[in-house]
Structure formats: C-alpha cells, structure tokens
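Lecture notes, part 5. Sequence design as translation. It can be helpful to think of inverse folding as translation between two languages: the language of shapes and the language of residues. The source text, in structure tokens, appears below.
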C-alpha cells in the first residue's frame, strides 16, 4: 500500500490542488503548448476520482459503509485518499469544499448485488433514485440503478449476471 501511495503522490499533488515548489511551478506555467492526444495504442489509466463534499468525515464513513473503501491517507482536515477493496485503481480523493453543490460528480461501480448496495446507500444517508435498468449485455443479464450520496453526487451501481436477484 505504501508503494501505491508513493507511486501516485505526484498525481495527488495535482489532484488536490496543491502547488509545487517555485522552480517546478514556473516550468509548468510557461508551457502553453497542449500535449498531443495519446496514440491509438497508448495506455491511459484513470488513477483517482476527485470527489467534492461538504463534510469529508461523513463522506469517508459513507463510502466505507457502502463500498468497503479503505482510507489510505489523510491530508489535513479536508482531504482523504481512499481505495476500493483490493486497492485497484482508480482510487478516490475526497475534498471538503464550501460549495460542493457546484462541483458534483458521477461514476459507475460494478457490484455483485445491486439491491444490497442500494440498501447500504440508503441506510447511510444516500437518496435512492428511480432509475432501474435491466438489459442483456454480451449474453449476461445486466441490472443497474442510481443513488445520490449525501452531497448529491450520483453513483450508478451495475450488476452483471444472475447473482443476488
């Protein structure tokens, strides 16, 4: 886990809005040419989701209870770095903001049991949305629904296969 956090530390500085020291900062500020898009064969990997909240402690507890996330780093009073079970990327950076309603986000998470996940979300302050989806995808039954976390960020939970109907 320490290697994971050390490996993404430079990204965390960017993602959390922290500023580099003056030499690095001035070098970055003078580059006005956009980098070219990755080639078709290039690998692009999402490292972290940045999630804004009005109460970082409440959000931390919510995502621990609903998805079993682990807090791997606390950066002061207003930032938490969290990872999903298995420490697979992307992780999540929770950032406490005075205006989280202007900075809402959304993501899709594949889960083994949509209904159990929705129940956990509701039991921990989430608001269930009436967005049921049922369809066959690649020969498997797929079901999903959405909920809002306590800050109004939308999460879609997707279940593939017939487990836990």
């Amino acid at each position: 886990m320490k290697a994971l956090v050390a490996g993404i530390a430079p990204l965390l500085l960017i993602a959390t809005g922290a500023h580099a020291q003056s030499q690095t900062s001035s070098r970055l500020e003078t580059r006005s040419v956009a980098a070219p898009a990755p080639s078709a064969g290039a690998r692009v990997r999402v490292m972290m989701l940045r999630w804004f909240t009005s109460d970082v402690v409440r959000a931390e507890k919510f995502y621990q209870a609903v998805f079993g996330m682990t807090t791997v780093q606390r950066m002061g009073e207003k930032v938490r770095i969290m990872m999903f079970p298995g420490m697979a990327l992307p992780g999540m950076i929770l950032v406490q903001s005075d205006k989280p309603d202007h900075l809402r986000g959304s993501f899709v998470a594949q889960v083994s049991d949509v209904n159990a996940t929705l129940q956990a979300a509701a039991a921990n302050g989430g608001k269930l949305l009436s967005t049921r989806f049922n369809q066959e995808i690649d020969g498997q039954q797929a079901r999903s629904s959405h909920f809002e976390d306590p800050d109004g960020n939308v999460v879609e939970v997707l279940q593939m296969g017939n487990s836990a109907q």
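The translated text above is only one of many valid answers, since several sequences can fold into similar shapes. Residues 1-32 have pLDDT under 50 and may be disordered.
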